[in-house]
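Bit of a strange request maybe. I'm writing a small parser for structure token strings and I need a real example to test against, not something I typed by hand. Could someone generate the tokens for this chain?
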Amino acid sequence: MHHNRGILNLLRIGSIKVDEMNPILTEQDVRNSKFLQALSMDERSLLIHNSRLIKMSSKSIIYNYDESFKAVYIVLSGSVKLGLTTSSGNTIIKEMAYEGDVFGENVFVAQGKRKEFAKCFDGGKVLEIKLEFFKHIVQNNPVFANLITETMIERLQNLQVRMEAFANKSAKQRIVEFIKNSARIRGIKIGINECLINHGMSHKEIAFLTDTSRQTVARILGELKKTDIIHFGARKPGKILIRDRQWIAA
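Reply from user aminoacidic:
Good idea to test on real output. This should exercise your parser:
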């Protein structure tokens, strides 16, 4: 299949750009996602005609709460936050989906409607897979089906761990664990022994993920900065520099 990016017409849907023709997945895309690696060559070929590439800007909405199921998604680059808005107007972030992750996959257990929203967090690309084709792969590819099942179980386990942490760990412990987990997932080695996290979150968003308050997050981060465990700038609080990478494993 010949592909020329110059002839692709880009359609704007809100703040999201969608390619009218879906480009062939790159080798890097496949390497970055265990879900794409599980597909056969025939399934990857069919995927081209049953998916589309979404180029996201920061804060792009991928789907809203209570929307009907139409597709399942894989993050190719960037990250996506999954959450819901309470009746009082507060936003609760349930979890984050990072490069290579699948999300919106709970199409077999919900009642035909989304129980969360999905918003782009820091720009990037996601692959939107048509629902019927996703179900076809699950039914015919046992390796892929097993990965999806494992993901759903893992998310339930993460929720249990989060509830246990809320009951048994202090706010500081939960915030420190958030920093360490972010470093393990997205940390970039800087210099000899430092680690940079470009998490891009506000204090309020970190508070939702750690079940604390914005004021507590600001206080704990300030304490860690004062003791030179981490460093961040006032103008770029979404980036945290960990001074000693050994602290991550402590």
